[in-house]
Specification:
Keywords: Cytoplasm, Magnesium, Metal-binding, Methyltransferase, Pantothenate biosynthesis, Transferase. Mg(2+) binds at residues 45, 84, 114. Belongs to the PanB family. This is 3-methyl-2-oxobutanoate hydroxymethyltransferase. By secondary structure, the chain is α/β, with parallel strands linked by helices. It is built from 11 helices and 8 strands. The chain has a single domain (6-262), classed as TIM Barrel (Alpha-Beta Barrel). It has helices spanning 6-15, 27-35, 47-50, 62-75, 93-106, 120-128, 144-147, 157-173, 185-194, 215-218, 241-253, and strands spanning 19-23, 40-43, 80-84, 110-114, 133-138, 177-181, 199-202, 210-213. The chain has an 8-stranded parallel beta barrel, surrounded by 8 helices. β4 (110-114), α6 and β5 (133-138) form a beta-alpha-beta unit. α8 (157-173) runs parallel beside α9 (185-194). The structure holds 3-methyl-2-oxobutanoic acid (KIV). The site of 3-methyl-2-oxobutanoic acid (KIV) has 12 residues, from β6. 3-methyl-2-oxobutanoic acid is lined by residues 23, 42, 44-46, 84, 136, 179, 181, 202, 212, 214.
Length: 266
């Protein structure tokens, strides 16, 4: 696969071709997923749950993230590498810069940060200093203790209006991408149409520009035995992991995934 850049992803949005993104934490899976055509590898702080066995993403450190970014970089064959800034990595502007620099120097092409319009200044300053930013909105797992659980966000009209306004403000501040997690499908489509930057969804319906899943989830692996509504097991019916990864890319590209059963209504 030729090296995927933000320009590539922008042109996929313009052409209406869906973007396939997956979480990835090591060199072997980075090799397999990028060979299968996954365009964005996200080193998600979900590694705290699926690799480290914690019950939330909060214990993950920036050093943990940098270690896995460097591993993914070594196996990657052309995908764009996005790295999560973990819990409290952006508590101050100085920490935001230092932690982003550590992830970019470990091999990330961009960082992802959970939040909303209050991030505008940090995003503008990161973009000016050469760090493209994806903003993770909707269900933001790092604030699970404020949200009162892993719940769909944006169901109330006031909340939906705020999310639409925040997305536009963050694009204007220089965000390069938006990720929407557990947002009603109709609201996610509206936000996707309202901004020029690519919008990736997880539990956000098929009207966004691309999809992401946690690697372990789409391979049918679960430590808890629970599976979220938006997850599909792509290993089922496939001979091997490469088959599952290719089936995922095909499902995203031909828009057979996600189906209506994987989304949420308002
Ligand atoms: O950490 C992660 O894996 C994520 C995805 C759920 C999008 O942020």
């Amino acid at each position: 696969m030729p090296q995927i850049t933000l320009t590539t992803l922008q042109s996929l949005k313009l052409k209406g071709e869906k973007i396939a993104m997956l979480t990835c934490y090591d060199a072997t899976f980075a090799h397999e997923a990028s060979q299968a055509g996954v365009e964005i590898l996200l080193i998600g702080d979900s590694l705290g749950m699926v690799l480290q066995g914690h019950d939330s993403t909060l214990p993950v450190t920036n050093a943990d993230m940098a270690y896995h970014v460097a591993s993914v970089k070594r196996g990657n064959k052309g995908a764009l590498i996005m790295a999560d800034l973990p819990f409290m990595a952006c508590a101050t502007l100085e920490q935001t810069f230092a932690n982003s620099a550590q992830l970019m120097q470990a091999g990330a092409h961009m960082v992802k940060v959970e939040g909303a319009a209050w991030l505008a200044d940090s995003i503008r300053m990161l973009a000016e200093r050469g760090v493209p930013v994806c903003v993770h909105m909707g269900l933001t797992p790092q604030t699970v203790n404020v949200l009162g659980g892993y719940k769909v966000q944006g169901r109330q009209e006031a909340q939906a209006r705020q999310m639409r306004a925040d997305a536009i403000a963050l694009e204007q501040a220089g965000a390069a991408m938006i990720l929407l997690e557990c947002v009603p499908s109709e609201l996610a489509s509206e936000i996707t149409q309202a901004v020029k930057i690519p919008v990736i969804g997880i539990g956000a319906g098929a009207g966004v520009d691309g999809q992401v899943l946690v690697l372990h989830d789409m391979l049918g692996l679960s430590l808890t035995g629970r599976t979220a509504k938006f997850v599909k097991n792509f290993l089922a019916g496939q001979p091997d992991i490469q088959g599952a990864l290719q089936a995922y890319v095909k499902g995203v590209k031909d828009v057979s995934f996600p189906g209506p059963e994987h989304g949420f209504s308002a």
